[in-house]
Amino acid sequence: MDESDFYGRLVPVRHGQIPALPDGAMTIPAIKDGICQRCATKINTTWRTPTSTYCWACANLGRLSDDQFLATIPEPNVFETDAMPCQWQGELTPAQRRVADEQVQALKAGRSHLTYAVTGAGKTEMLFPMLTAALQAGKRIALVSPRVDVIVELAPRLREAFKTDFVVLYGDSPETYRYTQLVLASTQQLLRFRAAFDVIVVDEVDAFPYAEND
User: Phi then psi for 186, rounded to 5 degrees?
Assistant: First the structure.
């Protein structure tokens, strides 16, 4: 694997692979004190194979066993920033501009912000000024949603609006992970990351919580 594959990520490895890890990579046990270090679930004693204990809760991301480790390199934010990453030619209405300006101010102040609007109000386009400012500042951004259909719909719109390269990650995504300043993904994919992002945007956040899922 390339060194950048470990930036801000939790990559499962086995003990024999540790010597081959890039310089600067740190490892933690995948399961420590009975807790999965990827999804923070307490391991049930019935989640076992003949040779190991594993985490059933996040097994859809790849089975994680107590004989494995999670390797990571702290996020370095090494991007070639673009002075003009947004190529969208549209215009926001005065009301949309007020919302977009509030998002930019929240970004500059480093505080959380909620944009609440009906379908069709232009929430995606209202994000563009804030995303542009974050990209110009060299911040790493995750735009995520609990709904995969939202991610699939957003991908072509973002590719049309931004010159910045980004990877699209969800369960059946045809793309392979690569290190990009912008990541478009299902929320579940964030379990693969560790302190990677300066900005996280959650679209359709009201889809939480999932039933029977702590």
Answer: -70, 150
Neighbours of 112 (CB within 10 A): 7
Please, are residues 99 and 129 in contact by the beta-carbon 8 Å criterion? no
Which residue's entry shows tokens 């990453």? 85
Q: How far apart are CA 43 and CA 37, in angstroms?
A: 10
Dig out the tokens for 203 from the structure: 């679209």
How far is 72 from 88, CA to CA, in rounded Å?
35
112: β partners: none
To the nearest 10°, the Cα dihedral for 99, 105, 107, 113? -50
Locate 175 and state its tokens: 């793309």
Between CA 188 and CA 67 the distance in angstroms is: 23
How many whole angstroms from its chain centre is CA 63?
20
Q: How many CB atoms lie within 10 A of CB 89?
A: 7
Q: pTM for the full model?
A: 0.92
Q: Which residue has the tokens 């690569």?
A: 178
User: Nearest Cα to 138, choosing from 73, 82, 87, 183?
Assistant: 82
pLDDT digit string, tens, across residues 102-126: 999 999 999 999 999 988 899 999 9
